[in-house]
Amino acid sequence: MALTETVTDSVPAIAVEDLRKTFESEDGTVTAIDGVSFTIEPGSVVGLLGPNGAGKTTTTKSILGLVRPDSGTVRIDGTDISEHPRKALDRVDAMLEGARNDYWRLTPRENLRYFATVGGDDPKAVARRHEELLETFDLAEKADEPVRDLSRGMKQKVSLASVLSADVSVVFLDEPTLGLDVESSATLRQELNRIVDDRGLTVVISSHDMDVVEDVCDRVIIMNDGRIIVDDDVENLLEQFETQEYRLEVGGADREVVERLRDRYGVSDVARFDRRVQFRLTADSATFYRLMDELRSAGVTLNSVDTVQPELEDIFLEVTSEES
Ligand SMILES: Nc1ncnc2c1ncn2[C@@H]1O[C@H](COP(=O)(O)OP(=O)(O)OP(=O)(O)O)[C@@H](O)[C@H]1O
Protein backbone atom coordinates (compact mmCIF):
# COMPACT_ATOMS: atom_id res chain seq x y z
CA MET A 1 0.00 0.00 0.00
CA ALA A 2 2.71 2.42 1.04
CA LEU A 3 4.72 1.45 -2.02
CA THR A 4 1.77 2.08 -4.36
CA GLU A 5 1.25 5.46 -2.80
CA THR A 6 4.88 6.40 -3.25
CA VAL A 7 4.85 5.33 -6.88
CA THR A 8 1.62 7.26 -7.57
CA ASP A 9 2.93 10.35 -5.82
CA SER A 10 6.05 10.42 -7.91
CA VAL A 11 4.22 10.86 -11.24
CA PRO A 12 4.11 14.56 -12.10
CA ALA A 13 0.76 16.03 -13.07
CA ILE A 14 2.50 17.66 -16.04
CA ALA A 15 5.90 16.75 -17.48
CA VAL A 16 7.16 18.73 -20.43
CA GLU A 17 10.46 17.78 -22.02
CA ASP A 18 12.50 19.73 -24.52
CA LEU A 19 9.56 21.26 -26.40
CA ARG A 20 10.43 23.15 -29.56
CA LYS A 21 8.16 24.90 -31.99
CA THR A 22 8.81 27.17 -34.96
CA PHE A 23 6.25 28.98 -37.07
CA GLU A 24 6.67 30.16 -40.63
CA SER A 25 5.61 33.75 -41.05
CA GLU A 26 6.02 36.44 -43.72
CA ASP A 27 9.22 37.59 -41.99
CA GLY A 28 10.69 34.10 -42.03
CA THR A 29 10.91 31.40 -39.40
CA VAL A 30 9.91 32.36 -35.85
CA THR A 31 11.15 30.21 -32.99
CA ALA A 32 8.26 30.35 -30.53
CA ILE A 33 9.68 27.89 -27.99
CA ASP A 34 13.17 26.56 -27.86
CA GLY A 35 13.83 23.62 -25.56
CA VAL A 36 11.23 24.10 -22.82
CA SER A 37 11.28 21.52 -20.01
CA PHE A 38 9.57 21.45 -16.62
CA THR A 39 7.54 19.21 -14.36
CA ILE A 40 4.62 20.20 -12.18
CA GLU A 41 3.65 18.16 -9.15
CA PRO A 42 0.00 17.30 -8.51
CA GLY A 43 -1.75 19.94 -6.42
CA SER A 44 0.66 22.75 -7.14
CA VAL A 45 -0.27 26.11 -8.57
CA VAL A 46 2.26 27.49 -11.00
CA GLY A 47 2.41 30.90 -12.67
CA LEU A 48 3.63 30.81 -16.26
CA LEU A 49 4.90 34.32 -16.89
CA GLY A 50 6.78 36.27 -19.50
CA PRO A 51 6.57 39.35 -21.70
CA ASN A 52 4.47 39.33 -24.88
CA GLY A 53 5.76 36.82 -27.37
CA ALA A 54 7.79 34.88 -24.78
CA GLY A 55 6.17 31.59 -25.76
CA LYS A 56 3.62 31.04 -22.98
CA THR A 57 0.64 30.44 -25.25
CA THR A 58 2.60 28.12 -27.51
CA THR A 59 3.73 26.13 -24.46
CA THR A 60 0.20 25.97 -23.04
CA LYS A 61 -1.35 25.03 -26.37
CA SER A 62 1.28 22.34 -26.90
CA ILE A 63 0.38 20.83 -23.55
CA LEU A 64 -3.32 20.95 -24.43
CA GLY A 65 -2.72 19.32 -27.80
CA LEU A 66 -3.87 22.45 -29.68
CA VAL A 67 -0.44 23.07 -31.20
CA ARG A 68 1.75 20.26 -32.43
CA PRO A 69 5.35 20.90 -31.32
CA ASP A 70 8.19 20.18 -33.75
CA SER A 71 9.81 18.03 -31.09
CA GLY A 72 9.65 17.22 -27.41
CA THR A 73 7.15 15.38 -25.25
CA VAL A 74 4.26 16.25 -22.97
CA ARG A 75 2.98 13.84 -20.35
CA ILE A 76 -0.06 14.39 -18.20
CA ASP A 77 -0.34 12.11 -15.20
CA GLY A 78 2.28 9.98 -16.93
CA THR A 79 0.38 9.65 -20.23
CA ASP A 80 2.00 10.98 -23.41
CA ILE A 81 -0.44 13.33 -25.10
CA SER A 82 0.70 12.50 -28.61
CA GLU A 83 0.28 8.77 -28.02
CA HIS A 84 -2.97 8.78 -26.04
CA PRO A 85 -4.47 12.27 -26.34
CA ARG A 86 -7.91 11.37 -25.05
CA LYS A 87 -6.68 9.60 -21.98
CA ALA A 88 -4.05 12.26 -21.24
CA LEU A 89 -6.44 15.18 -21.59
CA ASP A 90 -9.49 13.54 -20.06
CA ARG A 91 -9.28 15.52 -16.81
CA VAL A 92 -7.71 18.68 -18.19
CA ASP A 93 -9.53 21.91 -18.96
CA ALA A 94 -8.53 25.45 -19.85
CA MET A 95 -9.74 29.01 -19.87
CA LEU A 96 -7.78 30.64 -22.66
CA GLU A 97 -7.44 34.32 -23.50
CA GLY A 98 -9.24 35.69 -20.49
CA ALA A 99 -12.55 33.94 -20.96
CA ARG A 100 -14.12 30.72 -21.82
CA ASN A 101 -16.65 30.64 -24.62
CA ASP A 102 -19.63 30.55 -22.36
CA TYR A 103 -23.04 30.59 -23.92
CA TRP A 104 -24.40 34.01 -23.18
CA ARG A 105 -27.99 33.02 -23.91
CA LEU A 106 -27.77 30.28 -21.31
CA THR A 107 -27.77 30.89 -17.57
CA PRO A 108 -24.72 30.21 -15.37
CA ARG A 109 -26.35 26.99 -14.12
CA GLU A 110 -27.02 25.82 -17.68
CA ASN A 111 -23.48 26.66 -18.74
CA LEU A 112 -22.03 24.58 -15.91
CA ARG A 113 -24.27 21.66 -16.80
CA TYR A 114 -23.37 21.98 -20.48
CA PHE A 115 -19.62 22.03 -19.93
CA ALA A 116 -19.70 19.18 -17.43
CA THR A 117 -21.68 17.08 -19.91
CA VAL A 118 -19.25 17.91 -22.71
CA GLY A 119 -16.52 16.83 -20.30
CA GLY A 120 -18.26 13.45 -20.06
CA ASP A 121 -19.86 13.81 -16.63
CA ASP A 122 -23.36 12.66 -15.71
CA PRO A 123 -25.20 15.96 -15.02
CA LYS A 124 -27.11 14.48 -12.09
CA ALA A 125 -23.94 13.25 -10.44
CA VAL A 126 -22.32 16.68 -10.57
CA ALA A 127 -25.37 18.80 -9.62
CA ARG A 128 -24.08 19.18 -6.07
CA ARG A 129 -20.65 20.36 -7.21
CA HIS A 130 -22.34 22.91 -9.42
CA GLU A 131 -24.42 24.26 -6.56
CA GLU A 132 -21.21 24.61 -4.54
CA LEU A 133 -19.46 26.39 -7.42
CA LEU A 134 -22.36 28.82 -7.80
CA GLU A 135 -22.20 29.49 -4.07
CA THR A 136 -18.42 29.81 -3.96
CA PHE A 137 -18.32 32.25 -6.83
CA ASP A 138 -21.23 34.21 -5.44
CA LEU A 139 -23.33 33.45 -8.47
CA ALA A 140 -26.25 31.72 -6.74
CA GLU A 141 -28.55 34.72 -6.99
CA LYS A 142 -27.91 35.12 -10.69
CA ALA A 143 -27.74 31.41 -11.43
CA ASP A 144 -30.89 31.46 -13.57
CA GLU A 145 -30.38 34.70 -15.46
CA PRO A 146 -28.86 34.69 -18.94
CA VAL A 147 -25.10 35.23 -18.80
CA ARG A 148 -25.35 38.16 -21.26
CA ASP A 149 -27.18 40.20 -18.59
CA LEU A 150 -24.41 39.77 -16.00
CA SER A 151 -21.59 42.18 -15.21
CA ARG A 152 -18.07 41.70 -16.61
CA GLY A 153 -16.84 40.34 -13.28
CA MET A 154 -19.70 37.89 -13.03
CA LYS A 155 -19.15 36.70 -16.58
CA GLN A 156 -15.53 36.07 -15.68
CA LYS A 157 -16.63 34.04 -12.67
CA VAL A 158 -19.02 32.02 -14.84
CA SER A 159 -16.08 31.28 -17.15
CA LEU A 160 -13.99 30.10 -14.25
CA ALA A 161 -16.83 28.07 -12.75
CA SER A 162 -17.45 26.44 -16.16
CA VAL A 163 -13.83 25.30 -16.33
CA LEU A 164 -14.21 23.80 -12.87
CA SER A 165 -17.64 22.29 -13.55
CA ALA A 166 -16.35 18.95 -14.81
CA ASP A 167 -14.29 16.48 -12.82
CA VAL A 168 -10.96 18.07 -13.74
CA SER A 169 -7.60 17.59 -12.09
CA VAL A 170 -5.45 19.94 -14.19
CA VAL A 171 -6.58 23.42 -15.13
CA PHE A 172 -4.98 26.12 -17.28
CA LEU A 173 -6.11 29.67 -16.64
CA ASP A 174 -5.01 32.42 -18.98
CA GLU A 175 -5.52 35.93 -17.51
CA PRO A 176 -8.25 34.86 -15.05
CA THR A 177 -8.58 38.40 -13.65
CA LEU A 178 -8.53 40.23 -16.98
CA GLY A 179 -10.81 43.25 -16.99
CA LEU A 180 -11.91 42.86 -13.37
CA ASP A 181 -11.98 45.77 -10.94
CA VAL A 182 -9.75 45.62 -7.87
CA GLU A 183 -12.44 44.23 -5.60
CA SER A 184 -13.74 41.52 -7.95
CA SER A 185 -10.19 40.49 -8.68
CA ALA A 186 -9.43 40.12 -4.96
CA THR A 187 -12.59 38.06 -4.40
CA LEU A 188 -11.85 35.87 -7.35
CA ARG A 189 -8.32 35.20 -6.08
CA GLN A 190 -9.67 34.25 -2.69
CA GLU A 191 -12.27 31.92 -4.17
CA LEU A 192 -9.76 30.38 -6.51
CA ASN A 193 -7.43 29.67 -3.60
CA ARG A 194 -10.15 27.97 -1.64
CA ILE A 195 -11.33 25.79 -4.51
CA VAL A 196 -7.81 24.78 -5.49
CA ASP A 197 -7.11 23.67 -1.92
CA ASP A 198 -10.43 21.85 -1.54
CA ARG A 199 -10.09 19.88 -4.75
CA GLY A 200 -6.31 19.47 -4.79
CA LEU A 201 -6.18 20.82 -8.34
CA THR A 202 -3.04 21.33 -10.35
CA VAL A 203 -3.25 24.79 -11.87
CA VAL A 204 -1.16 26.69 -14.38
CA ILE A 205 -1.92 30.39 -14.46
CA SER A 206 -0.67 32.68 -17.17
CA SER A 207 -1.13 36.32 -16.25
CA HIS A 208 0.32 39.78 -16.42
CA ASP A 209 -1.42 40.53 -13.11
CA MET A 210 1.27 39.90 -10.49
CA ASP A 211 -1.26 40.15 -7.67
CA VAL A 212 -2.95 37.01 -8.84
CA VAL A 213 0.41 35.28 -9.17
CA GLU A 214 1.62 36.40 -5.73
CA ASP A 215 -1.66 35.47 -4.05
CA VAL A 216 -2.42 32.17 -5.70
CA CYS A 217 0.76 30.60 -7.10
CA ASP A 218 3.36 28.72 -5.10
CA ARG A 219 5.86 28.61 -7.93
CA VAL A 220 6.64 30.66 -11.02
CA ILE A 221 8.15 29.78 -14.36
CA ILE A 222 9.30 32.87 -16.23
CA MET A 223 9.86 32.62 -19.97
CA ASN A 224 11.62 34.96 -22.34
CA ASP A 225 12.37 34.47 -26.02
CA GLY A 226 11.04 30.94 -26.05
CA ARG A 227 13.12 29.73 -23.10
CA ILE A 228 12.67 29.34 -19.37
CA ILE A 229 14.80 31.86 -17.50
CA VAL A 230 13.45 31.37 -13.95
CA ASP A 231 11.76 28.38 -12.33
CA ASP A 232 11.45 28.84 -8.58
CA ASP A 233 9.11 28.96 -5.58
CA VAL A 234 7.48 32.35 -5.17
CA GLU A 235 8.73 32.50 -1.60
CA ASN A 236 12.34 31.76 -2.62
CA LEU A 237 12.25 34.36 -5.34
CA LEU A 238 10.94 37.04 -3.01
CA GLU A 239 13.51 36.13 -0.36
CA GLN A 240 16.36 36.07 -2.82
CA PHE A 241 15.63 39.62 -3.91
CA GLU A 242 14.61 40.88 -0.48
CA THR A 243 17.85 42.17 0.96
CA GLN A 244 18.91 44.00 -2.12
CA GLU A 245 16.96 47.18 -1.89
CA TYR A 246 17.14 49.73 0.93
CA ARG A 247 15.45 53.02 1.59
CA LEU A 248 17.54 55.31 3.76
CA GLU A 249 17.09 58.64 5.46
CA VAL A 250 20.17 60.56 6.57
CA GLY A 251 20.80 63.89 8.26
CA GLY A 252 23.51 66.46 7.52
CA ALA A 253 24.44 65.30 4.03
CA ASP A 254 25.39 68.21 1.80
CA ARG A 255 25.06 68.17 -1.98
CA GLU A 256 28.62 67.01 -2.47
CA VAL A 257 28.08 63.91 -0.31
CA VAL A 258 24.86 63.07 -2.12
CA GLU A 259 26.56 63.42 -5.50
CA ARG A 260 29.31 61.08 -4.32
CA LEU A 261 26.71 58.51 -3.23
CA ARG A 262 25.10 58.77 -6.64
CA ASP A 263 28.43 58.25 -8.42
CA ARG A 264 29.80 55.49 -6.26
CA TYR A 265 26.70 53.58 -5.23
CA GLY A 266 24.12 54.54 -7.82
CA VAL A 267 21.64 55.71 -5.16
CA SER A 268 18.37 56.84 -6.70
CA ASP A 269 15.04 58.52 -5.91
CA VAL A 270 16.85 61.20 -3.91
CA ALA A 271 14.52 63.55 -2.03
CA ARG A 272 15.73 66.43 0.13
CA PHE A 273 13.74 67.92 3.02
CA ASP A 274 15.81 70.69 4.68
CA ARG A 275 18.58 68.79 6.43
CA ARG A 276 17.14 65.35 5.82
CA VAL A 277 17.81 63.40 2.64
CA GLN A 278 16.01 60.23 1.58
CA PHE A 279 17.23 57.88 -1.12
CA ARG A 280 17.07 54.35 -2.41
CA LEU A 281 20.00 51.96 -2.69
CA THR A 282 20.19 48.64 -4.49
CA ALA A 283 23.21 46.73 -3.25
CA ASP A 284 24.55 43.57 -1.63
CA SER A 285 25.28 43.71 2.10
CA ALA A 286 29.05 44.37 1.71
CA THR A 287 28.34 47.46 -0.40
CA PHE A 288 25.68 48.55 2.05
CA TYR A 289 28.20 48.48 4.93
CA ARG A 290 30.79 50.32 2.83
CA LEU A 291 28.26 53.06 2.28
CA MET A 292 27.54 53.14 6.02
CA ASP A 293 31.26 53.66 6.74
CA GLU A 294 31.45 56.40 4.17
CA LEU A 295 28.46 58.20 5.70
CA ARG A 296 30.01 57.94 9.16
CA SER A 297 33.34 59.37 8.06
CA ALA A 298 31.56 62.24 6.27
CA GLY A 299 29.81 63.07 9.57
CA VAL A 300 26.40 62.18 8.20
CA THR A 301 23.86 60.73 10.63
CA LEU A 302 21.68 57.81 9.74
CA ASN A 303 18.04 58.43 10.66
CA SER A 304 16.45 55.27 9.31
CA VAL A 305 16.96 52.26 7.05
CA ASP A 306 14.18 50.14 5.61
CA THR A 307 14.50 47.08 3.50
CA VAL A 308 12.19 47.45 0.60
CA GLN A 309 9.97 44.40 0.26
CA PRO A 310 10.18 43.51 -3.40
CA GLU A 311 7.04 42.91 -5.38
CA LEU A 312 6.93 40.01 -7.75
CA GLU A 313 6.36 42.61 -10.45
CA ASP A 314 9.83 44.16 -9.80
CA ILE A 315 11.52 40.78 -9.88
CA PHE A 316 9.74 39.90 -13.09
CA LEU A 317 10.81 43.15 -14.74
CA GLU A 318 14.37 42.77 -13.52
CA VAL A 319 14.90 39.22 -14.73
CA THR A 320 13.23 39.74 -18.09
CA SER A 321 15.09 42.99 -18.80
CA GLU A 322 18.44 41.44 -17.80
CA GLU A 323 17.82 38.67 -20.32
CA SER A 324 16.86 41.07 -23.08
N1 LIG B 1 0.49 30.84 -35.41
C1 LIG B 1 1.61 31.55 -35.37
N2 LIG B 1 2.21 31.94 -36.52
C2 LIG B 1 3.36 32.65 -36.52
N3 LIG B 1 4.00 33.02 -35.38
C3 LIG B 1 3.45 32.67 -34.22
C4 LIG B 1 2.23 31.93 -34.14
N4 LIG B 1 1.93 31.72 -32.83
C5 LIG B 1 2.91 32.33 -32.13
N5 LIG B 1 3.82 32.90 -32.94
C6 LIG B 1 5.04 33.62 -32.54
O1 LIG B 1 5.72 32.85 -31.58
C7 LIG B 1 6.24 33.66 -30.53
C8 LIG B 1 5.67 33.21 -29.20
O2 LIG B 1 4.27 33.49 -29.18
P1 LIG B 1 3.30 33.12 -27.96
O3 LIG B 1 1.93 33.50 -28.40
O4 LIG B 1 3.53 31.72 -27.57
O5 LIG B 1 3.84 34.10 -26.83
P2 LIG B 1 3.12 34.54 -25.47
O6 LIG B 1 4.18 34.49 -24.43
O7 LIG B 1 1.92 33.73 -25.24
O8 LIG B 1 2.74 36.05 -25.76
P3 LIG B 1 1.45 36.91 -25.22
O9 LIG B 1 1.73 37.26 -23.81
O10 LIG B 1 1.52 38.10 -26.14
O11 LIG B 1 0.24 36.08 -25.44
C9 LIG B 1 5.89 35.09 -30.90
O12 LIG B 1 6.98 35.65 -31.59
C10 LIG B 1 4.71 34.93 -31.85
O13 LIG B 1 4.64 35.99 -32.76
Describe the structure.
There is one protein chain. The chain is of the alpha/beta class. It has twelve helices and 14 strands. It folds into two domains: 14-238, P-loop containing nucleotide triphosphate hydrolases (Rossmann fold); 243-322, 2-Layer Sandwich (Alpha-Beta Plaits). The strands form three sheets. It has a six-stranded mixed sheet with strand order 6-7-8-3-9-10, sandwiched between helices. A four-stranded antiparallel sheet has the order 2-1-4-5. A four-stranded antiparallel sheet has the order 12-13-11-14, with helices on one face. The longest helix is centred in the middle third of the chain and has 18 residues, at 182-199. It binds adenosine-5'-triphosphate. Adenosine-5'-triphosphate (ATP) binds at residues 23, 25, 30, 32, 50, 52-58.
Strand content: 25-35%
Query: Count of DSSP helices?
Result: 12
Q: Whole-Å distance between the termini?
A: 50 Å
- What is the ordering of alpha helices and beta strands? HEEEHEEHEHHHEHEHEEHEHEEHEH
Small molecules bound: adenosine-5'-triphosphate
Overall average residue pLDDT = 88
What number of domains?
Answer: 2
Count of distinct strands: 14
Largest sheet: 6 strands, mixed
- Strand line-up across the major sheet: 6-7-8-3-9-10
CATH-defined fold name of the largest domain:
Rossmann fold
Q: According to CATH, what is the class of the largest domain?
A: Alpha Beta
> Taking Cα atoms only, what radius of gyration do you get, to the nearest Å?
25 Å
What would CATH call the homologous superfamily of the largest domain?
P-loop containing nucleotide triphosphate hydrolases
The assigned CATH architecture of the largest domain is 3-Layer(aba) Sandwich
Unreliably modeled segments? 1-8
Structural class: alpha/beta
Protein name: ABC transporter ATP-binding protein
Organism: Halopelagius longus
Family: Belongs to the ABC transporter superfamily.
Pfam families: ABC_tran (PF00005), DrrA1-3_C (PF13732)
